[in-house]
Write a structure and sequence with these properties.
1 helix; 18% helix; four-stranded mixed beta sheet; single chain
C-alpha cells in the first residue's frame, strides 16, 4: 500500500539503516507525483500520471521557499540539540543524499 505524498517541503527526520536520521527535502509540487519510473519498491506507488485530480496540485516550490524551509528546520534542530545525519532530496520517489557523515 502506498503512503500519502508529502505535504511540506521539509519532513522528518526519517530513520533509515542506510542513511541514519535523514531530513527529507521535497522539491516537487505538494500532492503531485512526478516521476519517469515505476519502481516496484516505491513507497508512493505506481506513477501512472498525476496522483492528484487535475488542477489540485500546488505550484512547484521556488528555490527561495526551499531554502527558507530547510534553513528554518536546521535552525530548529540546532536549537533543540537534534542530531541529523543527512539531508535527502526525495521528491515523492527517488532519493539523493546530500550530506555524508
Amino acid at each position: 500500500m502506498a503512503i500519502p505524498l508529502q505535504q511540506h517541503i521539509v519532513y522528518g527526520p526519517v530513520r533509515s539503516r542506510r542513511l541514519g536520521r535523514s531530513l527529507g527535502v521535497n522539491v516537487l509540487p505538494m500532492g503531485l507525483k512526478v516521476c519517469n519510473m515505476n519502481c516496484a519498491y516505491c513507497q508512493y506507488g505506481w506513477t501512472g500520471g498525476s496522483r492528484t485530480p487535475a488542477g489540485r496540485a500546488k505550484p512547484w516550490p521556488t528555490p527561495a521557499s526551499v531554502n527558507s524551509a530547510v534553513t528554518a528546520r536546521l535552525r530548529r534542530a540546532a536549537r533543540d540539540g537534534e542530531l541529523l545525519d543527512r539531508l535527502t532530496v526525495a521528491g515523492h520517489g527517488s532519493v539523493l543524499s546530500l550530506v555524508e557523515k
